[in-house]
Amino acid sequence: MPSETTRAATDPGQVDEDRLAGALSESVTASAAIAPMLCEPDVRTTQVSQLLHGHIAEVVERNGLWLHVRGADGYPGWVHQGYVVTMPEPVPPPAQTGWDDPRPLSLGCTVRDEHGATRKLPLGALITDGQERSAGLAMTLEERRNAFPPEADSITASAMTFFEGTSYEWGGVTPWGCDCSGIVSSSFHLHGVHVPRDAWMQAMTGKLVESMRELRPADLLFFSDEPDGKITHVAISLGGTRVVHQALGRGGHAVDDLSSGDEYTDLLLSRYRFARRVLVED
């Protein structure tokens, strides 16, 4: 369990349980490669996350052409109905997330439908019925479990390679555009390790790492630039103070050493709060 100090530093406030409690008897799946999940039912508002192609969400509320949905990982947001299709019958989401679905999952591929139309899919999207891979890579769940073990060095390698060159995008979770907590959740999910979507949530997983001297690969480092200490950034340790992250200050994917002494890393180091180990040994 996280300490009360950690909770105070990360908890943004009480979730509106009443709004989320009575989900409608309706499920949708993303028909677009990426369906933006927004904070309000208005295209001009902020993206908070993304529902990827083939992933299932339950409808909590309707507001005109907008659906308030809850993804299989429990994360809520507003999606325009143009990005999704309604399932014939309500479908319980997979036990954890769409990353656990047995269908082929894109590692960055192109698919062709029965009419010959092609579409590119990002890492994490699912290939659905009537589609076949025409280029790139995709793997079934069994293949992914063999290729991407839940091991620290393998997870950091995925964060380094799949997201290399990715621009920073608030609410993004793919190599087409990603934020700091998105690279964490997607990299770990690819390896069958489930972590929450937001940095403040991730800051309450695993166990506390007592000092930076004890940092191991795949440990998570948390930072805050807020007076109240609310967590605003997360990075993945490559071992010690060397990290990989999606950094607004770098414009996107970056590998930094917090002990390098340059202006950016000094600023980041001044905002460091604590680290946590998700891969906890039995």
Descriptive report:
The chain is of the alpha+beta class and 282 residues long. The protein folds into 3 domains: 4-86, SH3 Domains (SH3 type barrels, Roll), CATH 2.30.30.40; 103-139, no CATH class; 147-277, endopeptidase fold (from Nostoc punctiforme). It is built from 7 helices and 18 strands. The strands form 5 sheets. A 6-stranded antiparallel β-sheet has the order 13-18-14-15-16-17. A 5-stranded antiparallel β-sheet has the order 6-5-4-1-7. Strand 8 and strand 9 form a beta hairpin. Residues 1-22 have low confidence and may be disordered.
Can you summarize this structure?
The chain is an alpha+beta fold.
Task: Pick out the low-confidence regions.
Answer: 1-22
User: What summary fits the major beta sheet?
Assistant: 6 strands, antiparallel
**Overall radius of gyration:** 19 Å
Order of strands, widest sheet: 13-18-14-15-16-17
Number of strands: 18
Question: How large is the count of helical segments?
Answer: 7
- What CATH architecture label of the largest domain applies? Alpha-Beta Complex
Oligomer: single chain
CATH structural class of the largest domain: Alpha Beta
What count of domains describes the coordinates? 3
The geometry reads as globular
Structural class of the secondary structure composition?
alpha+beta
CA-CA gap between termini: 16 Å
Relative helix content: 10-25%
Write the layout of secondary structure elements.
Layout lengths: L3 H7 L6 H5 L5 E4 L3 E5 L8 E6 L3 E8 L2 E6 L4 E5 L3 E3 L18 E9 L4 E4 L9 E9 L1 H7 L4 H10 L11 E2 L2 E2 L1 H11 L8 H4 L4 E3 L10 E4 L9 E5 L4 E6 L4 E6 L5 H8 L1 E6 L5
Antiparallel strand pairs: 1-4, 1-7, 2-3, 4-5, 5-6, 8-9, 8-10, 11-12, 13-18, 14-15, 14-18, 15-16, 16-17
Helix pairs in contact: 4-5
